[in-house]
């Protein structure tokens, strides 16, 4: 197999593996897919995928000054990300269910959904450190390491997961009536708030 293709697939697997665990972005993608439809879930996930690609580029190109700055600012970033997560949880808890699941309903604010998860992912210090470590190791053991190939692979792998997740949840959307959508909103809000409080507690240790 071509070495560049192998590197792309390896980076794609990294992007997929980092995106796939159900954390705050996954919960947001599921909740927004149920609220607005698959396009909203995809937009939510792609915001995270672009942020993943940016941190992948930092790790792949080995921008040491930026890496050092991000590591130094991880406490501030974590605090800001936690505050944003609490705000999102509050909005979701107050959000009414879609008028009709599977119907036209309210139009999804795709740009806002994309931007929100983009900023949230950038503010996650775990994302910073994981990409720096993984990409440094991947570039170090590949004789033909190409930063752009690695960045493209991460973006593709991460985006693939969000298309799969939003598509699967979107197919089930018509089975959720207004009562169940409201319950999903409350559970999602509670879990997101829990993620935020856990991050804040970790900062105070």
From TrEMBL:
Localization (cell) = Cell membrane
State one molecular function term (GO): amino acid transmembrane transporter activity
Q: Which organism is it from?
A: Rubrivivax gelatinosus (strain NBRC 100245 / IL144)
Q: What protein name does the entry list?
A: Lysine exporter protein LysE/YggA family
List where the protein spans the membrane: 6-30, 42-70, 113-136, 148-172, 184-204
Q: How does it sit in the membrane?
A: Multi-pass membrane protein
Matching Pfam families: LysE
The UniProt keywords, alphabetically, are: Cell membrane, Membrane, Transmembrane, Transmembrane helix
């Amino acid at each position: 197999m071509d070495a560049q293709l192998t590197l792309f697939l390896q980076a794609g697997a990294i992007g997929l593996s980092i995106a796939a665990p159900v954390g705050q972005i996954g919960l947001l993608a599921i909740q927004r897919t149920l609220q607005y439809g698959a396009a909203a879930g995809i937009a939510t996930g792609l915001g995270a995928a672009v942020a993943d690609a940016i941190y992948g580029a930092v790790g792949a190109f080995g921008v040491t000054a930026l890496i050092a700055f991000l590591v130094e600012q991880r406490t501030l970033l974590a605090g800001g990300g936690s505050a944003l997560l609490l705000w999102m949880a509050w909005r979701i808890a107050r959000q009414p269910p879609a008028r009709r699941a599977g119907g036209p309903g309210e139009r999804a604010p795709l740009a806002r959904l994309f931007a929100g998860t983009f900023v949230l992912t950038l503010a996650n210090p775990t994302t910073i450190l994981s990409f720096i470590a993984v990409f440094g190791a991947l570039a170090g053991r590949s004789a033909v390491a190409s930063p752009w190939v690695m960045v493209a692979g991460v973006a593709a792998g991460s985006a693939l997961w969000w298309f799969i997740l939003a598509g699967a949840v979107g197919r089930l959307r018509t089975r959720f009536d207004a009562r169940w959508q409201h319950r999903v909103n409350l559970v999602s809000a509670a879990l997101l708030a829990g993620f935020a409080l856990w991050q804040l507690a970790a900062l105070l240790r």
